[in-house]
Specification:
The chain has about 70 residues and is α+β, with helices and mostly antiparallel strands. The chain is built from 2 helices and 5 strands, in the order αβββββα. It has helices at about 10-15, 65-70, and strands at about 30, 35-40, 45-50, 50, 60. Strand 1 and strand 2 form a beta hairpin.
Length: about 70
């Protein structure tokens, strides 16, 4: 028996309320990578078990290529 792990959906209303803690700008949801992306700060905040981790220490830097895809 094979089971596939699916990530829990993040609440759309929560997404509308959240902003980047560093730049205070709007975030973009990447469902595939389970991240919230800040274009202005060039950071990607992880989502773990449906919970956004809004700590800059936990965020990864977004490459210029990734940033170009967001525009």
């Amino acid at each position: 028996m094979t089971t596939s792990k699916t990530e829990p959906e993040i609440d759309r209303k929560l997404l509308e309320l959240l902003v980047c803690p560093q730049s205070k700008s709007k975030l973009h949801y990447d469902k595939e990578k389970q991240e919230l992306l800040s274009k202005r700060a060039k950071l990607a905040y992880p989502i773990r078990d449906g919970v956004p981790i809004m700590l800059t220490d936990e965020a990864r830097n977004i490459s210029d290529d990734e940033l170009a895809k967001l525009k």
